[in-house]
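User: hey, got a sec? need Dual specificity protein kinase shkE folded
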Amino acid sequence: MGAATQQEPARVDATPAKAGVDAGPPEAAELLNGLAGGDPQPLGSGAVDNAIAVLKAMDPLACLSDLLADMNTLSPTPALALPEVADLIRSRLEGIELCSITAIVGPQAGGQGGDDDDIRPPQAAGVLMAVAGGGSKVLEGLTVVRGPQWSALHVAVTNAPLHVHSAEAGELPDGSPLPEDWARLCSAAGLASFLAVPMALGPQVLGVLTVAAAQPDAFADPGWQRLMAATASACVQHMRSPQLCYLASMLACAEGEEDDLGCMEVLIYGLSMYMRRCTNLKVSVRVGLVDRGRKAVLVLEGDPKAPKVKVPPPTSMDDNSFRPPPRVARALVATDVPLAGTLLESAVTAHKARCIKDCAAYFQSAVDPVGDIFTAGSSLVSSMAVVPFSHNESDLGGITGWGAIYFTLPEPCDFALLQEDVLGAVSATTLTLHARLRDRAAALGPCVAEVTDQRRRSSSIAEGAPGAEAEAASVPGSAGLSKGAPFSANNKKLCTEAMKRAIQHKLQTTHKGGRRSTGSSVAAPTNQDLVLHDRIGQGGFGICYKGMYKNSVAAIKVMYARKHEKEALKDAVEMAVLSEVNHPHIVQLYACLTDMIEVAADKLDVGVAQLGGTAQMLPHYRPARPDDAVTCNIVIMEFCDRGSLRDALKRGAFHRRLEGGVMAVDVLKVVRVLLQVSSSLEYLHDRKILHCDIKMENVMLKSDPSREMGFVAKLGDFGLAKMLNDNYFVTNRSGAGTITHLAPELLKAGAKLTEAIDTYAFGILMYTMYAAQRPYASLTQEQIVDRVIRKGMRPTFPSAAPAAFVNLASRCWDADPKMRPSFVEISATLKEIINGEDGGGS
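Assistant: Yep! Here you go:
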């Protein structure tokens, strides 16, 4: 829009209905004469549009109805609507170079309410909520201002418009100095005319709407003040909303913190409370900052071990105050995560939000899962959205963003339903975060580490000991660090505990979790809890000991740290499944100790194990600290004293050699063991869990004098277990397992896996138990794939094998998964075989 014309406006000769219209320049009069009937020649539609455009350029109020109509189509979420309003004003009104919207918070600020000093700033503050146009970068460095030297606070005090015809004079009409922000805009962006109007609700100023132009006297026409006042009134509904009042107060409080970690403390907990109030869901928030070297991202989040403080509810429906936890409950955890292969990298590179609806299902199906879902500070994470900061810059060499906000939920969630609230939170906080923390990831990391070291050294001082306070105060490096809550620093490790919790939660909610979780120990087990006696086995990823747990004989499986999330998931799945199942033929779990660290055995006198005649000191374990590089997970289970089914087969538990070299098979004993295994798989499949590794080595035997056989079979080793989705299948991504027991579909990437893969392996188990030999022993892996998987080759039973037994095994390993029987049918058939063999025994 142009400035008001200085010449006497011409009058249009028109009918009485058109008389009195200011036509402005001669070309406008000529066009309007046609509209009024003065020109006998008809005008085209283009001429009419031009005439209307000239009229609107001359009279600011002529644009009001269109502007208000467009504002009615904007987002209903205040934090999203205000940037749209600023951009709409700047683009629709000719001559405006800059438009900004500032919220006023603090004492006497409208709609604030409440008495929580932790969230409300001690004095009135102006918080920049939106800015568009030339000069934006100047204001983006002034996201929160305090004092009457700033234009927004000046207007807030007077509750009246503030107009400067030409900023070059350097002062206001009353002779007082030009507001500092306007002086900077004049100097840095060449803006000359300014107009600021209050967004008020009676005497309470909620915000300030400001426009600026490069031309002097751009807003001299009184219509401009009326137009801006009407526009400001239309924005009051957004400025008075509880959500915006809270966000503005939180940002003012965060910016007022002396140190960066204190700022993050307020933002992270404040945003979490904001999202919970808006959505009525338990949303948690993290902030990820990309370092300038583009090698890592610093993830800051709340410490789940921080004291829980109940936040009082609003006192009334009109109480707009949001009360975050006090400082004591705001401990943060910082984790350095390699940037490559993270959800944040994908989000900031594409400048689009990235969401995972179900983290447990995602990890199970992803070939190469991202590395920033589960971190050291993770509580229960079942779904996640990562939204890059909307302030986009391209100076990071291919990474077009400098950070993002993570939103996590303890339940699977479609974040499309929360889109407005999530985007509003990011939009509102981006400007303040950019001004305060841009390029601070590299500095924040060491700062957090220093605070952590300070905390650890302080905690080592005897509580209440003389001079303890003085010694704690003298810890070097404490100056300039957060004076609020403590912080913990971590390098990225595979956080199995967080993975386990997510999988457990899914099992409990959608897979008929059979018992309450045994949980995991937070503190290190005492000598009475866990005592190692003998090493009884060792594999590629861990060692198994026989020992005692709470005075009960136990098998203690120590699984050492994996290199990647996909590998760590195997440990998490095994612990989660064992924690949630409860069946007499599944190995019972006593406890899971996740993210532990092994203490050097030569430093502790904890016992001696004999292995191969060599005395070895047994290790000791404690919970891992943030600076521990290598961790392990410990699974404590019931001890199966008779070993595995493979061990029993080698001992001749099911076969005996007769005269002439003929091998006799105890069919009843074989079938009874198979029936016990079948019942465990029937139980698992009813809960939509696939074992995926049925073989003799994974069936354990435990003495039980009450049983006819003298022992009971128990299914174990759930490292390859999978959870079926709601449609009772899971997409194949790996094909892991024992090659001789793999169903053909397991070698097809993308195939739909069902319970039938366990059925196939069970058929091979039936053969192995009866024939007392491995299937395809003379074939290489490549030959097995070619002949068995592709050409349909199957093991051949001895001729004396019972027909019903052979028929059942053949049905189990049918090439068509749909033709394989369920374990309900398998169990029924095995019972029939038992009844046929002994006349009804069990």
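Quick note: The chain has five domains: 1-58, 75-244, 257-450, 496-639, 648-838. Let me know if you need anything else on Dual specificity protein kinase shkE.
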